[in-house]
Design brief:
This protein has 291 residues and is α+β, with helices and mostly antiparallel strands. The protein is built from nine helices and six strands. The protein folds into three domains: 90 residues, Ribosomal Protein S5, domain 2 (2-Layer Sandwich), CATH 3.30.230; 46 residues, no CATH class; 138 residues, no CATH class. Strand 3, helix 1 and strand 4 form a beta-alpha-beta unit.
Length: 291
Amino acid sequence: MIKSMTGFGRGKYENEGRSYTVDIKSVNHKYTDISVRLPRFLNSEEDKIRKRISSAISRGKVDVLISFENYSSKGTNIRINKELAKEYIKELKSLADETDLQFNVDVIDISKFPEILKIEDTQDEELIGKELMIAVDDALEKFISMREIEGTRLVQDIEQRIYLIQNKVNEITEFSSTLVKEYMEKLKVRVNELLEPSTVDENRLMQEIVIFSDKSSIEEELTRLKSHMSQFLELIKQSSPIGKKIDFLIQEINREVNTIGSKANCLDITNRVIEIKTEVENIREQIQNIE
């Protein structure tokens, strides 16, 4: 299934007061570019997260945002620097005696002084890493699902435009089949208007017709254009990443259309070329989002 490079997925996991939230979003990019933002103490998990995401995508600029909250007492120890607290009390009593101020300090006041309370993090990193990957996998599954849904919509839109182009190409083919004949008739009429019928050089007339036919012939371009569109329709049915291939193919389609427009000496063909070019440009914009 074709995937879009645009997607978003949010995964969550909670256990024993520990809460994980993982947001994965992506936009168009020529290559794979994964940026991960997470709490510092989880830095050891960054490489694992990158590998997990890169194994699921082939292109796109991906931003991963991870947040972690711990409301449990597990993994957190609070220590009181009793010796330092005693020094604070000693110095404050001394200050009160020297200044005749009342010494009125309780334990809560002392706890607010610098370096008295120290919170030690003794969390189980291995456990947290496993729990985090549950949230990552949840986000990644939703992220890939959204890319697939968007990819399906892109394919449906592109197919409609390709079918429209095919119809216009068939109309051009019909016009081109009568182009030389119409030119020949117009040329004969014009020559006969300017010259006596007996003085018309038929050989010279045929040479002019052959030259015009050679210059205005678009049969080869039409054949290649039809082949490119058939390849295009087959390509967008594939499940593997096709973004780069399809981008090259649309360039080839555009090249053939431009050549047809420059060679065809017919207003009806020119008008249809303009319509085709409009659709080709719309397709070009759409495929920029295909993985």
